[in-house]
Amino acid sequence: MRKLRLCRRNLCKKSENVRDPVYSWQRPCGQHTDINIYNHSMRGKVPLVLVNPQMVTWYTCGPTVYDSTHLGHASTYVKVDIIQRILRDYFKYNLVTAMNITDVDDKIIKRSRETGQNWQELAQSYETEFNRDMQLLNVKPPNLRAHVSTNITTIQRFIEQLLAEQKAYVAEDESVYFDVAACTNYGKLQKISKDEPKEPQEYKRNAADFALWKAKKAADEPSWKSSWGGDGRPGWHIECSAIAGMFFGGKLDFHAGGLDLRFPHHENEEAQCCAHYNTKQWVNYWMHTGQLYVAGAQQKMSKSLGNTITLAEFFKKYTADEFRMACLLSNYRNAMQYSDEMMQTARQTLRKFINFNADLHAYMQLQKPLKFLDEGALEAQLKYMVTEFDNSLRDDFDTSRALSVLLDQMSSISRCINDQNVDAEQQPARCLHLLLAAGNFINASMYNLGIKHMSTAEAQREALATNAQSVVNVDVLVADILQIRGKLREQASVNGTKNLELLRICDQLRNILVRNGVEVRDHKQGSSWVYQDRSKSVSHSG
User: Fold this and answer.
1) pLDDT digits over 198-217, tens only?
2) Cβ(417)–Cβ(371) under 8 Å?
3) Which residue range or ranges hold the tRNA synthetases class I catalytic domain (predicted)?
4) Nearest-5° Cα angle at 227, 221 to 232
5) Among 21, 151, 401, 405, which lies 20 to 30 A Cα-Cα from 505?
């Protein structure tokens, strides 16, 4: 094992020595983890080095909330959740995660016009649906979450600094563009040249320049005033840079998203932040997940192509655990060819784990004849399983190989305990503690990977729950109620006068939440809430 890890380090060092001097990845200074991660620009694996192992930062590109979540989105967020769980729950790193919610966007404006629904209400409804879908998929919510519409000031300050340092410019139409000519290492993620000939575009100095701020063009567009004179809204790329920077500053350990975001979105994010923070490398590790395809199709699953499968449709046939198992079997960087055959393989694999649990439990409850087992062989197998499982996850989070290690161990144990040939002269059974140790490790590993139900009864309950239409995410429901209450509080104090009736309604909403165990804390800029300490008395005033 020691030699294997030394070889990995040498291979990583060798790959770094032949790197392109213009687009080179810079190894961070910090604690080596003995984990290797694939780096697209290096076209190979590089060592994971944590600047501060006591706090590991992670930002994920969030959803643009203009439509329902489909299975392509689900694959990205489930794969990201798997890697985060490995780092947090298996390797025990203190992972701090953040995500943006794009609630101002061309697609949202277009859908608002098509439906006649207010853009804010439309975005809020789809965000609520997204949160519920993530809960059904057992995707842990981020520690930090920020909406574009409520962080316009942060985004504008980011743009103002780029303008002040002449790394961006205001065009004739009062839009603001990033000047790629001022970025010495633009194109490092995709290995493209900013000097490649392209068709010139109106208002831009260079064809590769991209919008930081889009000037308002129609009366019904949401817009905000700016210090450079043009009313408008943020561009797509700047929102993630500004929000991630607001949370984590000028250095980020991990940044995740689908492979289709590597260019132009992530490329432009990196360029903006390198310019803003005056650094050569903003993100140390870009995590790009493979895309989901419908089997036989040449293009990814996307709304624009009309080849999507909604989660509501998916849950009519399969469970969240089965989909997660499919993701685990494919590994995070691999494309997935979605089909019933793929899902049946995932279902059968999950069933092997459930059946193993049932068999081991029956054996320990003396429902199967106890066998004399070779203690030395079992100890060697247990050590091999733990070591190889660990090696697999350290090798670019290779969950497919990690599962095969567990499956091999389960198969070996199952053959022993299910063998019906019992010799009457056989010595008394022993090694039950080793069997339990193996079972505990397998179960803990599956839970750490996000498989929620490891028994037949639990799996049946999950199937019922995901098909039910009444699943309620309490956190999202309380947040929505407080958002409405916040709007009422604002309206109750317009122009220096107080509307006592609206304030009374706000008090009633707060008291209803208190009676149901939610403590509301009002602040100058909105409200927060916590679950009540049940050891304390609760007022039930009306």
Assistant:
1) 565 778 898 899 999 999 99
2) yes
3) 51-347
4) 10
5) 151
